[in-house]
Amino acid sequence: MNPSDHETDSLAHPQHASDARLRRASRRGASKPDLARGLTRTIVLGAVVVAVAVIWLGRQYGVEPAETLAFLGNSLVFVLVLIGLAGATAGLLILLRRLRNRR
């Protein structure tokens, strides 16, 4: 069966066309949680690999593991502060835009 047969079949039978649309929509909806779960797993695994790599590099250069973990913790705090500042700035810009549009 070639693609034009499917088009002709769906034109002749509207129920088949709506069934096909529902199947495609349900497939798209079902894949969103899978994508979120895969993204979360990738982020967690990436973070673990980076932490292990930093500790390994610290050992290679003769830095104590506790000091390496302190550097890693400070870096995490720095990144979180930057994320917070970016979020606060975005929130402020959204608030200002809404106030300006309200006038």
Quick gist of this model?
This protein has 103 residues and is mostly helical. The protein is built from 3 helices and no strands.
Give your account of this protein's structure.
This protein has 103 residues and is an all-alpha fold. The protein has a domain at 32-102. Helices cover 92% and strands 0% of the residues. The chain is built from three helices and no strands. The chain has helices at residues 3-12, 14-60, 65-102. Helix 1 (3-12) crosses helix 2 (14-60) and helix 2 packs across helix 3 (65-102). It starts with a helix and ends with a helix. The model has no long low-confidence stretch (mean pLDDT 81).
Q: Which runs of at least 5 residues are low in confidence (pLDDT < 50)?
A: none
**What share of the residues does DSSP label as strand, in percent?**
under 5%
The global form is flat
Q: What's the total helix number?
A: 3
Helix-strand pattern: HHH
| Sheet/helix structural class | mainly alpha
Helicity range: over 70%
Main β-sheet: number of strands, strand sense, barrel status? none
Query: Strand tally, please?
Result: 0
Q: Mean pLDDT across all residues, rounded?
A: 81
Query: How large is the radius of gyration?
Result: 26 Å
What is the terminal-to-terminal distance?
Answer: 60 Å
